[in-house]
Batch of 4 targets.
Target 1
Amino acid sequence: MATSRNAMMKFLENKGCRVVGTTEEFSGSKGGIWLSGEEGDGLFNYYSESSKYNIGVLNTLQNAVEKKGWWFEWNDPGTIMCWTM
């Protein structure tokens, strides 16, 4: 079972992500978390081709998020969403 959205938002903030709001606030899509892809001290890099990143997300962060039942999806190079699986 996936971690609740509120708990996931706190988890992401504790990891250094800038949680902007919910996907409902961004686009009206229900259930996700809206994050800044431009902040987070190297957690996100949309353009990276380094093996440290998977789809522009630092591997350690992506693995931790997936273990909690969530995944990332880019909206644009500065905006990334986190969704429950």
Target 2
Amino acid sequence: MIRIVQVKPLEGYRLWIRFDDGFEGVYDVEPEHRGGVFDQLRDPAVFNAVTINEDFGCVEWPGGVDLCPMTMHEEMARQVVGAA
């Protein structure tokens, strides 16, 4: 199972992520396109409060908003392949 080991919030609702397999890069969260519980991430203070859930290896924010590390890894890997 892929786990996130480091995260850093960036401007523009993006995250720099490092996974436990060594893969790293920038993930665009795009809260404005996700809607629902993700709308609260449009507040920079909330977005910048991102942490890693040590039990599940995912990124999470106050209020129980989280993202699946496997999905993030796959999306980021597709972007790298597409850019090549």
Target 3
Amino acid sequence: MKIGIFDPYLDDLGGGEKYMMTIAQCLSLKHKVDVFWDNPKDLELLLKRFSLDLSKVKLTGNIFSPKISTTSRFIKTMKYDAIIVLSDGSIPIVFPKLFIHIQEPLNRMQNNSLLDKVKLSRVNSFFCNSEYTKHFIDKRFFLKTHVVYPPVDLHPKNIKKENIILHVGRFRIKNIKNDDFKKQNVMIKVFKKMVDNGLTNWKFVLAVSVLDKDIKDFEEMKKTADNYPVEFLVNKLNDKLWDIYSKSKIYWHASGFGEDLEKHPEFAEHFGISTVEAMGAGAVPVVINAGGQKEIIKNGNTGFLWSSLEELESKTLLLINDEKKLSEMSKNAKISVAKFTSENFCSKINELIT
């Protein structure tokens, strides 16, 4: 088969982009795969960041660019057997089989007009990254979708654990109209409070990716942690991230805290790849009871879910003060995430597409 793949956010270097390019990597083992994009440097940065192998994938011009007419796009797709698109709610008109991936709960989708309904009828399958995303898409747009969980390559290192609470995530994704999506400021405040109340010999490490346009805001956030045992690791590659994952004992995540998730479900974590990675390295997650996190963690067994900042603090202190409990949950966490492998992901994608 000849397969084309399009991700309109390929220069964003996020989890969705890793998801789509892992699809490309998987399918390229048995099929001819083209990625529709104009700037090779964006792809190079993505490959470097996520250690992907796209040596068998061809980068071709972006036929979904606004510069390309609908007719021309339709004709160009005739040489493909299937097209896979990461959708923002729009549905393209293409000739071959069409598979639409939806990465987050969407507020809109092309499904009202007669033309929209024709477009929808041409889609062979919709697939989401979690039951959380699926729930909102099915409910809002009356669609039948499949869930294919993201692939998580686990590379824990044999490094001695240290008294570290870790958070991994991008800093301030402003394009979703929320200037603190990952709630990093919130977590810093909680940790500072714990230190003020007597916590010693522990540090909070935030491993964050920061775009140039956000440097000023990031530096302002860093200042709020002055004189506290808070460390920032900025734009580290996967290998270095596994160093800190492997050293850490506890993992924090707070996306969605304080938000109206019925109105804005996109503000919660859609799945939680970094949580799975942390668990794979034996860090016990203490994460918000929202979004895709609830699908990853068995509360009280492989980690803790919390709904208030008081719970975040108390459940973290429970682990800090009970080494036996921490060790037991660490082992459970490692075992539980084995299902999120690239092999399982590739098998399900091949089954869905071919």
Target 4
Amino acid sequence: MAIFQNQVTTGMKVIGSDGKEIGTVKEVRATDFLCNRSMARDVYIPFAAVQNVTENRINLNVPSDQIDHQGWANPPIMGSAGH
């Protein structure tokens, strides 16, 4: 089971390592969660990118301006490495 999986729930705010809000959790899955972003494509963020979870916030270990460069636009293929 992924670390933080049981702490992440829909509606939580997702914050980049730079402190900027990225979006909100739309769906929680086995190895990642779908982040709903305003004016941008939703992304599937792996639990490995979560730095910590506090109250209603998920803090990532990736800055907000690097989210689109992580290859998270599509859900991972089950059993694939590196996601």
